[in-house]
Amino acid sequence: MTIYLATTNAGKLRDFAAIAIQHDATVETLPGLASIPEAPENEPTFEGNAVSKALYYSSRAPGLLVLADDSGLEVQCLNAAPGVRSARYAEDQHFPPTPGSTKDERNNAALLHALDGIPENCRQGRYRCVLALARDGELLQTAEGSVDGVILQAPRGENGFGYDPLFFLPELDQTMAEVSIEQKQRLSHRGRAFESLLRQLDT
After folding, report:
1. Which of 15, 24, 69, 70 is catalytic?
2. Is 11 annotated as a binding residue?
3. What does the alpha-carbon distance between residue 117 and residue 122 come to, in Å, rounded to a whole number?
4. Helix, strand, or coil here: 85?
5. Residue 103, annotated ligand binder?
6. For residue 36, what is the domain's CATH number?
7. pTM of the predicted model over 0.70
8. Is 173 a catalytic residue?
């Protein structure tokens, strides 16, 4: 079974591909994705965006199993922000970019700015991911995964992407950007959601 991922994010593709192998499946980037106009992400929930994207891209890739995800970080003391706007948080906050900084670095800096002065015991966060699988514009399956952590006051680690350098896992005494690839695949919100989806398909 081959599942085609509707994203060009190399980190997501790597995480999904490693898990798929354990279920006799493979994950590849959706063919011709670069030539397909980007799907709108206007829904107010992770599930809404994931389903919308899966239906959109699968209707443009006849016969293929197309997987779309929407995921992000919810911080308790920020009323669950950045939430569905995690990838565009700095832009939404009109947070100025530092010359040479990446989009991830700008988002991390914007989050730290929003949490300035907030003590550690109030910095709980949750990574959430919703996956949607579709074929020919028809929804086949959805799954969700989450992981709880604490938002640090400075980034640590080089292995992750997004908010991983700030997302601290107390039980491991490491950030999501410090854990091994194998640990991340097992513990991450994305990994848990994909495991759940593949188990549903296995049965």
Report:
1. 70
2. yes
3. 10
4. helix
5. no
6. 3.90.950.10
7. yes
8. no
